[in-house]
Amino acid sequence: MILSSGTKKPKIHASAYVAPTATIAGDVTVGEESAILHGAVVTAEGAAITIGAHSVIMENAVLKAGGGNASAHPLTIGERCIVGPHAYLVGATIGNGCSVAAGAQILNGAELEDGKSTSANEVVAGERVRPESAESYAAFLRKTHAADALIEQHRTAKSPPRRSGEEPPPTQVAEVDKVVDVMMLELEEMEHRRQQAIKRQKGT
């Protein structure tokens, strides 16, 4: 589902894949040959989100950018990045070639340098959010999303027009499956290297 938010509309490269059950809203830019998989939520509320080329946002990941009169927290994800399932990224800067593991949280103001990875469920802290800001944030969200409007489902440049809710063509599904298979192998290899490093540290 692709939504405008106020005057802001997502800009999705024609070669990118967006799953029918993913949600993209507001000032979001998705680079060429990237993939946004099922259940992912990418929503810009007062600041922009940029996802670089050849990056993958896996199932049920949540990506947010926010801002108001006082401050803005854009979210930038570089090229060739993998954001794992159930990860939560908000107002952060992710360099090129990074891997965010399943369940990891990267919070407002945090930065991940080029080529860096996180562990599963790791929290990368950023700026502290005051509890009293919740009331003003809730008011901001009500105003921001009051006029959200559904935009036509994203289609790749090679895809013929299709009806809302219709699955992408088999060739496109196959290509995404290959991306996911490779990505899972990379995540497993990262976890293996992390476990080996822990064993070496315990041995010293």
Layout of SSEs?
Elements lengths: L1 E3 L6 E2 L4 E2 L4 E3 L2 E3 L4 E2 L4 E5 L3 E3 L4 E2 L4 E6 L4 E2 L1 E3 L4 E2 L4 E3 L2 E2 L4 E2 L4 E2 L4 E2 L10 E2 L8 H13 L3 E3 L18 H34 L1
Parallel strand pairs: 1-4, 2-5, 3-6, 4-7, 5-8, 6-9, 7-10, 8-12, 9-13, 10-14, 12-15, 13-16, 14-17, 15-18, 17-19
Antiparallel strand pairs: 1-20, 10-11
Protein model, in words:
This protein is of the alpha/beta class and 204 residues long. It has one domain (2-151): Hexapeptide repeat proteins (UDP N-Acetylglucosamine Acyltransferase, domain 1), CATH 2.160.10. Helices cover 23% and strands 26% of the residues. The chain contains two helices and 20 strands. It has helices at residues 133-145, 170-203, and strands at residues 2-4, 11-12, 17-18, 23-25, 28-30, 35-36, 41-45, 49-51, 56-57, 62-67, 72-73, 75-77, 82-83, 88-90, 93-94, 99-100, 105-106, 111-112, 123-124, 149-151. Strands 1, 4, 7, 10, 11, 14, 17, 19 and 20 form a nine-stranded mixed sheet that branches. It has a six-stranded parallel sheet with strand order 2-5-8-12-15-18, with no helix packed on it. Strands 3-6-9-13-16 form a five-stranded parallel sheet, covered by helices on one side. The N and C termini lie far apart (51 Å). Residues 164-180 have low confidence and may be disordered.
